[in-house]
Amino acid sequence: MTGLDRNLTPKTRPMQKRTAMVASLDVGSSKIACMIARLRPSPPNEALRGRTHAVELIGYSQIQSRGVKAGSVVDLAECEKAVRHAVALAERMAKVRVESVLLSVSGGRLHGQLVEAAADIHGGSVTADDISRVTSAGMRHAAGAGRTVLHALPVGYALDGVKGIRDPRGMVARQFGVDMNVVTSDATVAKNLMLVVERCHLNVEAMASSPYVAGLSVLTDDEADLGAAVVEMGAGSTTIATYSGGRLVHASGFALGGQHITMDLARGIGACIADAERIKTLYGTVLTGGSDSRELMSVPTAGDDRETPQIVSRATIANIVRHRAEEIFEMVRDRLADSPFAAEPRARVVLSGGASQLTGTVELATRILNRQVRIGRPLGFGRLPNEAKGASFSVPTGLLVYPQYAHLEHVEPRRTRQLRTGTDGYFGKVGRWLREGF
């Protein structure tokens, strides 16, 4: 059976103290990135104590995305071609063949919900089966109709109403309870992403929400302990993950991102979309100065190349970019106000994703969010190519370190997987699953 046959999305198992090879796949609205790495056991460093393995990147690729809008698949065939191309380029560089990938999810209206579940203890002391039984009941309660669970992170346990228990196993109680943060997504979005991958003769080792894995990549352990919010600013969507006490405590998102700035520019200055994207990349800023109105540039007119190019000032471009960026950060502010992050007045905000690299985003976000803000970049990676060191690679690099944090999540017991031999409608021939865990 495949991951589509199960009620819950696949999740990776805790890593053992041995070397493993992993591949990450980030299917975004503007780019598809694939990374292949070896994870080698290593002692934790001071800033990233939670990481048990060092990441050695051996292959990567980045191509333009097709068939994806706002993090959701809108054209199955086009998206499949793009994924095949991205994985093939990474395989060629790494000189290995990938059988399974870690997959990110940025669409599907990500939502984090704090769930409390409790049950009576029949044996007198709490066992691992009791923990699994109660947390599974909480996950099923959070996953409403049409939703699927991406993460189930226990925040704390309770024994006979007494909270603050860290590890209840073996302790005596009449009633056992658990507080969980459950992150869900639209099941259709997750299933179609899995479908694209499986049509490429690949298995989905695990699925993870984009803001969560971005936080694993860009946050230090101290930031996660003291409280921080990661704002992943993609092309088609903006997603948010808030951390406190070293745990993910809330997640949300909305369908606004860098592509909307590009479309605003195309409409505002009458340029084609490709020229608007290039102008945004080279000259996009949310800051305006006194000389911007006097600095002019020639912009080709959309449509007929024989028409005379129009002259546009830098101030006009900056105003268009700033208005949409302000709208995005105002929506982020409203989401953060409705999350546990509002109770952490000194916690900082870390921006990641391609749209966060516009000039002046830190200053604009600081003013609107009234928080300390910085740009997040992948941490703890010894040798990354220059193009993969920026904020736009926070998600694929975060997927590479995600297996090291699998012990934090509750994972449903896996059913026995069967071999798939031959064709089966949508899926085609899919090989066996790579392994039960790392």
Automatic annotation (TrEMBL):
CDD domains in UniProt: ASKHA_NBD_FtsA
Domain of life: Bacteria
Keywords: Cell cycle, Cell division, Cell membrane, Membrane
Principal subcellular localisation of the protein: membrane
One term under GO cellular component: cytoplasmic side of plasma membrane
Entries under SMART domains matching the protein: FtsA
Biological process, per Gene Ontology: FtsZ-dependent cytokinesis
Gene3D superfamilies: 3.30.1490.110, 3.30.420.40
InterPro entries to which the protein is assigned, alphabetical: ATPase_NBD, Cell_div_FtsA, FtsA/MreB, SHS2_FtsA
NCBIfam families named among the record's database cross-references: ftsA (TIGR01174)
Function summary: Cell division protein that is involved in the assembly of the Z ring. May serve as a membrane anchor for the Z ring.
PANTHER family the UniProt entry points to: CELL DIVISION PROTEIN FTSA (PTHR32432:SF4), CELL DIVISION PROTEIN FTSA-RELATED (PTHR32432)
Name this polypeptide is given: Cell division protein FtsA
Organism: Bradyrhizobium erythrophlei
